[in-house]
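Budget justification aside, the reviewers requested a transparent look at the raw inputs and outputs of the sequence design task funded under Objective 1. We therefore reproduce one unedited record. The lines immediately below are the structure tokens for a 231-residue chain.
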């Protein structure tokens, strides 16, 4: 209760109403209010309190979208350290290196990661690859390889791993292509804007026409040479 009272005393409503009431006291001392001075002072206080802007709580400050990628960058470092400790077939290891390179390029601090942060679906694709898909694929390969040595037969686990990594690489490449296409569209839009602006400026400089004068008419030929055109 005491906090609410103290908060009102410090509020803009009370300060504005008090200033208006003080003006009413000055009017009373000047002899204009007479016996109605309590009504004048109270009315001015109420009017001032109503005219004061309401208290506006500060808007919550949320973190920037790109700052949410910090944990994902740390997870990618952990994933790369894990991949260096396991024994993988050369083809799958090479494709995994290419995949982690793509992911590292997307998460590198700068305008690329800022563009990624504005695409929630893209962030989900990267996080899913780093935190679930790649670790699960590698771990499943290691477990299946052990069982295959005990009971050979069936599809080789190396082929299955290479297929999984190829699919993940294609998914990451599609994300990169989508971000690139978005930048290309932005560039083309700016080109059209410059072309439209340049066309209107050219028309104003030429006296309202963006087309050159027709030099094939007789009047134009006469104005150009100073003598009538030859038949």
């Amino acid at each position: 209760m005491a906090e609410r009272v103290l908060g009102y005393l410090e509020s803009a409503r009370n300060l504005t109403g008090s200033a208006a009431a003080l003006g009413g006291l000055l009017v009373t001392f000047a002899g204009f209010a007479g016996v109605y001075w309590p009504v004048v002072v109270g009315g001015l206080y109420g009017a001032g309190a109503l005219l004061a802007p309401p208290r506006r709580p500060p808007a919550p400050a949320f973190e920037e979208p790109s700052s949410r990628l910090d944990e994902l960058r740390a997870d990618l470092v952990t994933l790369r350290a894990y991949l260096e400790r396991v024994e993988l077939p050369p083809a799958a290891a090479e494709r995994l290196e290419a995949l982690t390179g793509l992911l590292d390029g997307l998460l590198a601090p700068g305008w690329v990661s800022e563009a990624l942060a504005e695409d929630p679906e893209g962030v989900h694709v990267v996080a899913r690859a780093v935190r679930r898909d790649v670790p699960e694929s590698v771990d499943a390969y290691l477990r299946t390889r052990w069982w295959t040595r005990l009971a050979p037969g069936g599809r080789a686990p190396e082929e299955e791993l290479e297929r999984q990594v190829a699919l993940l690489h294609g998914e990451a490449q599609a994300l990169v292509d989508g971000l690139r296409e978005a930048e290309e569209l932005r560039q083309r839009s700016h080109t059209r804007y410059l072309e439209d602006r340049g066309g209107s400026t050219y028309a104003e400089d030429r006296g309202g026409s963006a087309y050159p004068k027709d030099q094939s008419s007789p009047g134009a030929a006469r104005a150009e040479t100073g003598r009538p055109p030859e038949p």
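Residues 157-205 form the longest helix (49 residues). DSSP finds nine helices and no strands in the chain. Computational costs for records of this kind are itemized in the attached budget.
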